[in-house]
From TrEMBL:
Gene3D superfamilies: Sulfite Reductase Hemoprotein, domain 1, Sulfite Reductase Hemoprotein,Domain 2. InterPro entries: Cbl_synth_CobG-like, NIR_SIR_4Fe-4S, NiRdtase/SiRdtase_haem-b_fer, Nit/Sulf_reduc_fer-like_dom_sf, NO2/SO3_Rdtase_4Fe4S_dom, NO2/SO3_Rdtase_4Fe4S_sf, NO2/SO3_Rdtase_FeS/sirohaem_BS. This is NirA family protein. Keywords: 4Fe-4S, Heme, Iron, Iron-sulfur, Metal-binding, Oxidoreductase. PANTHER family: FERREDOXIN--NITRITE REDUCTASE, CHLOROPLASTIC. Belongs to the nitrite and sulfite reductase 4Fe-4S domain family. It comes from Sediminicoccus rosea. Pfam families: NIR_SIR, NIR_SIR_ferr. Residues 175-327, 429-547 form the Nitrite/sulphite reductase 4Fe-4S domain. Residues 105-165, 351-415 form the Nitrite/Sulfite reductase ferredoxin-like domain.
Length: 553
């Protein structure tokens, strides 16, 4: 620092500057040395090691350097036209990019759309990104979110940057992070709504995005808020399930914990019910307990459910109270009033809003896939006939809200090849990506789902709602365990051949009827599923009492 070219004043300034840098380095350095900053992730890993635990490879990768600091690795690979190797792919997922080989030699980018509310401006740019950097189509997910597929290696960073520029930065949409927050899609429109979740979802979304400690959890984490309303949001399938209740003269959110349907568990309601303004702090405290104490030595036991199983709810909530430094508000669960059960067909068709003369249109999206042209067209419909908003639902479709000229909007949708009409079978059809785009899948769920729907609707007419969910593997992205009919991808051995097929589950339920379905027939070859379901449905229709749903069967 000393030498020709620097005046004494400049040298003094530089000395002071460097002293400050060294001091900050010391304050940030982890206790065990290394270069990563001391944060909640590092502290939790240190504690695991101190207890004699061996970190799984994903934890080692996070420990090597915080994944949020590894964006330059992603851009360098893109410049070289390379896709990442598995552990680098895990790091890339912190930034929303998933390498989905060998199913597709491409990236998939999963967005982050809090509450599923999308503006026409955003929808147009997503369509343009899908066209210019992806396969020209967009998939709607069961977290009221969008995915862009068939992204070449060199285009990954451009997709992420362009999404960030329209307020849809896909940070933390994969790997061990908090996924897109879901909430009632008819918020602000619905005559049945109890609480407006929008300000809470917005605050929570930005709290997560802007809190570095909340990236790098032991495993993925889901949060959902049900404010009442006509369309179920399936909050009971989330790690944190916040359900509106009326108690002690106020509307609050009852806390449920540990939902993970792939492991056949729904969130367990607790006696904790917080005011809307307390939700962000509560979620933050729960996350911090999970970050500090979740299992980092066994990926199969790393979800919140397993910490709850090991500790029990009383101890877990005690730890949450310790983080908050105050007791949680508790009430008698039996005294918590719930809103009426949702309408199972409110996500499709035309529905009157609480604003006189306005309607939301529930648009059917076959196989949950839109072309770029259709999404651009929907943006136009939303601007011309609504208020410029689109609302995605967990039922893999979308709403156009605030429509006065219903006939005009329906005609504009028809011109896009879209409609709000769906029979009971199509309305309740949910399918994950499947083998066409996911390496874990044992079956082509989207294609099989459409084939099953066509087969059934040609042969039977149902006058009651029915959910058929097809999931390609045990990750349960389409939540087969809560469907009336849940199909889980399975490999079926026939002689020397291994064929795609499904384990068939019956009797799952959601919302006020939430329950886990039971396996009735394992390993049915894909082609044999539709005839078997037809028999079951005919049997049900013949035997059912008036008003009885499939869930009562
Ligand atoms: Fe892929 Fe399995 Fe999820 Fe289907 S359920 S999208 S097969 S990970």
């Amino acid at each position: 620092m000393e030498g020709p070219g620097f005046s004494p004043e400049q040298q003094n300034y530089l000395k002071g500057f460097m002293a400050g840098v060294e001091a900050r380095r010391g304050a940030l350095a982890p206790a065990g040395g290394g270069t990563a900053p001391a944060d909640a992730l590092r502290a939790a890993q240190d504690a695991t090691i101190a207890r004699g635990g061996k970190l799984v490879p994903q934890e080692e990768a996070k420990r090597e350097r915080h994944p949020l600091d590894r964006w330059s690795e992603i851009t360098a690979r893109a410049e070289a036209g390379q896709f990442p190797k598995p552990i680098d792919d895990f790091i890339g997922r912190f930034h929303g990019l998933f390498f989905v080989g060998p199913a597709q030699d491409a990236f998939m980018c999963r967005l982050r759309i809090p509450g599923g509310i999308l503006t026409a401006h955003q929808a147009r740019e997503v369509a343009a990104i899908a066209e210019q950097c992806g396969g020209g189509f967009i998939d709607i997910t069961t977290r009221a979110n969008l995915q862009i597929r068939l992204i070449p290696a060199g285009k990954g960073p451009e997709v992420v940057m362009r999404l960030g520029e329209i307020g849809l930065l896909p940070r933390g949409t994969g790997a061990d992070n908090i996924r897109n927050i879901t909430a009632s899609p008819t918020v602000g429109l619905d005559p049945r709504e109890w609480l407006d979740t929008r300000p809470i979802v917005r605050a929570l979304h930005h709290h997560i995005l802007n809190t570095r400690d909340l990236f790098g959890l032991p495993r993925k984490f889901n949060i959902s808020l049900d404010g009442g309303g006509s369309i179920a949001v399936l909050e009971e399938t989330n790690d944190i399930a916040l359900s509106v209740v009326r108690v002690g003269g106020a509307d609050r959110f009852r806390l449920g914990l540990g939902g993970i349907t792939g492991h056949q568990d729904l969130a367990t309601p607790t006696d904790v019910a917080v005011l809307p303004g307390e939700v962000v702090k509560l979620c933050d405290a729960i996350l911090r307990v999970f970050i500090a104490h979740g299992d980092r030595t066994d990926r199969k036991k790393a979800r919140l459910k397993y910490l709850l199983d090991a500790w029990g709810h009383a101890r877990f909530l005690g730890e949450v109270e310790a983080v908050l430094a105050h007791p949680l508000p508790r009430f008698d669960i039996a005294a918590m009033q719930r809103p009426p059960a949702p309408d199972r067909l409110a996500h499709v068709g035309v529905h009157a809003q609480r604003q006189e003369g306005l309607h939301w249109l529930g648009v059917v999206v076959p196989a949950a896939r839109l072309s770029a042209d259709q999404l651009r067209g929907l943006a136009g419909v939303a601007e011309r006939f609504g208020n410029g908003e689109l609302r995605l639902t967990v039922w893999q479709n979308l709403l156009v809200p605030n429509v006065a000229d219903v006939a005009g909007a329906l005609a504009a949708l028809a011109a896009l090849g879209l409609s709000t009409d769906a029979n009971a079978i199509r309305a309740g059809l949910v399918a994950c990506t499947g083998s066409a785009g996911c390496k874990f899948a044992a079956a082509d769920t989207k294609r099989n789902g459409l084939e099953i729907a066509s087969f059934l609707e040609e042969r039977i007419t149902l006058d009651a709602p029915l959910n058929i969910h097809l999931t390609g593997c045990h990750h349960s992205c389409a939540q087969h365990f809560i469907a009336d009919i849940g199909l889980l991808g399975a490999k079926v051995e026939q002689g020397e051949d291994v064929l795609p097929g499904y384990d068939i589950h019956l009797g799952g339920g959601a919302a006020q009827e939430a329950r886990i379905g039971r396996l009735i027939r394992p390993k049915v070859q894909a082609e044999a599923v539709a005839p078997l379901l037809l028999n079951i449905l005919r049997h049900w229709q013949a035997d059912r009492q008036a008003g009885e749903s499939f869930r009562d069967f």
